[in-house]
Amino acid sequence: MAKSGEILSKLTEQGYRITPQRMMILDAIENAEDHISAEEILTLVCLQYPNVNISTVYRTLELLKQLGMVTETDFGDGRVRYHSIKKGRHHHLVCQKCGGIVDMEESIFNPVKETLLEQYGFDADIHHMAIFGYCKKCR
Amino acid sequence: MAKSGEILSKLTEQGYRITPQRMMILDAIENAEDHISAEEILTLVCLQYPNVNISTVYRTLELLKQLGMVTETDFGDGRVRYHSIKKGRHHHLVCQKCGGIVDMEESIFNPVKETLLEQYGFDADIHHMAIFGYCKKCR
DNA sequence: ATTATTGATACAAGGACTTGCAGTTGCATA
DNA sequence: TATGCAACTGCAAGTCCTTGTATCAATAAT
Question: Are A54 and A23 contained in the same domain?
Fold first, then answer.
């Protein structure tokens, strides 16, 4: 179960329980090469323990999201994907023509966040966004 | 059917047909007080002509979105809402604690759009976004 | 005018989540 | 080590939206 120790202890701190399901789900996300979908997580988990339910996966993802351990991104293909915060924060540029996806620095939203705080007193929580548009080649 | 004339003629120009369903759906969106959901559109349309199907509503919304006549926003409450571009472009700040929604100027994203174009050659199409975070009171 | 062709629609089935509920389990405490 | 209970899970049913298919209507070609 690798080095997910910190996250697990954070769960305990906040009064949440550590269950085999949660450990396996967390493991799947942390070991994933790329952004992973709920269905893919379930498939991986079921290799170890077949009777885990998809709703448990969704509920755990919701929890991990709330605790800021995982981010959720909609790439516009009809299913949402998840990513461990430990593997780095970033956003995505999705080309609406060729479908290409390019990663982009998180800092790009800093000016927007500052303006929102100044003008609206709003503390924006912008994490792992997919921005749609047209890439260099396609526009 | 009010002053939807431009939009209807734009449909014709692009080789799309003007059907009663499309007119009624467009009408529902334009006359809506606020951002309206697909289900609400269907209810309104069915007052006039009961046999219209929800899938026609979704397909029409998809078309109007593509033509840039309507924007789609996810306020995070499990259903997406639509808004006529004629009634003004703007974004929303959604408070994750109190649920309050504040409109925000479109121009706030201009610096981001410029940076994306310079650094990535990406022409971002940022329309009608909902940004989550905490409002003045709640943070 | 008659026949293709294309486009739009209703209906039904499917996919991605979400929710209610009854039963199970982790874990604090005795 | 047992026990109490809130937290968690699996299951089934439900919601919102999408897609496949056959049918129907409008325009274009013959």
Answer: yes
Two tokens, residue A137: 């080649």
First to last CA, chain B: 45
CATH code at position B120: 3.30.1490.190
pLDDT tens readout for residues A13-28: 999 999 999 999 999 9
Give the mutation candidate from B94, B122, B123, B125 for the A interface (greatest A CB count, under 10 A).
Answer: B122
Paired strand residues for B131: B93
Mode of pairing for the β-strands spanning A123-124 and B130-134: antiparallel
For residue A33, tell me if it sits in a domain. yes
Same domain, A73 and A107: no
- The pLDDT tens digits of the residues spanning A83-108 come to 999 999 999 999 988 989 999 999 99
Q: Do residue B95 and residue B76 come from a single domain?
A: no
The Cα–Cα gap between A10 and A16 comes to 9
Look-up of token digits 């500052």: A114
Residue B139 belongs to some domain of the structure: no
B84 CA to C22 C1' in angstroms comes to 46
Distance B22 CA to D25 C1' (A): 15
